């Protein structure tokens, strides 16, 4: 488990959209408590997609208004892997990578409960038959004969 914990002043991710009528214009560099989450351990890899934030399938962006591909200070995640200066966490059911070099860490070890779902039993023929053909029942208000 890791807690997102970048040094605010040293952590300067790129953002866009600070000027209302110029949404793609880069913002001035400033400290941030958030880290970008990439789909691979590479600065040029696409940001992770968030179907809740972008239900139309649009990619996540670096806009100050788009929180889809960010992890913020204090949030705790299960570690999903490491590659060089990158750490992967489980985010929305898949790996999401953030830059976490030893010389400027963006996370700290953390404790927490890791819940792993139990596998569902495989349906049997009788289960499938019951699902397709539920037992016939009478409505509660039907008179008895």
Describe the protein.
With 145 residues, the chain is mainly β. 6% of the residues lie in helices and 21% in strands. The chain is built from 1 helix and 8 strands; from the N terminus they run ββββββββα. Strands 4-1-8 form a 3-stranded antiparallel sheet, with no helix packed on it. Strands 5-6-7 form a 3-stranded antiparallel sheet, with no helix packed on it. The chain is globular. The termini are far apart. The mean pLDDT is 87.
Quaternary organisation: single chain
The number of E-state strands comes to 8
Structural class: mainly beta
The unreliable regions are none
Q: Considering DSSP H and I runs of 4 or more, what fraction of the residues is helical?
A: under 10%
What topology, given as strand order, has the largest sheet?
A: 4-1-8
The radius of gyration computed from the alpha-carbon positions, rounded to a whole number of angstroms, is 23 Å
Tell me, what's the shape? globular
């Amino acid at each position: 488990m890791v807690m997102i914990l970048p040094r605010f002043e040293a952590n300067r991710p790129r953002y866009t959209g600070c000027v209302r009528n110029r949404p793609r214009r880069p913002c001035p560099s400033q400290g941030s408590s958030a880290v970008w989450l990439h789909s691979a351990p590479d600065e040029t890899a696409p940001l992770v997609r968030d179907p809740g934030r972008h239900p139309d399938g649009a990619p996540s962006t670096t806009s100050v208004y788009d929180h889809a591909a960010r992890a913020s200070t204090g949030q705790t995640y299960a570690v999903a892997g490491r590659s060089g200066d990158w750490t992967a966490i489980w985010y929305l059911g898949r790996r999401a990578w953030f830059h976490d070099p030893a010389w400027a860490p963006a996370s700290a070890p953390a404790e927490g409960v890791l819940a792993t779902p139990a596998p569902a039993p495989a349906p049997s023929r009788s289960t499938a038959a019951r699902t397709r053909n539920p037992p016939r029942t009478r409505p509660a208000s039907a008179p008895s004969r």
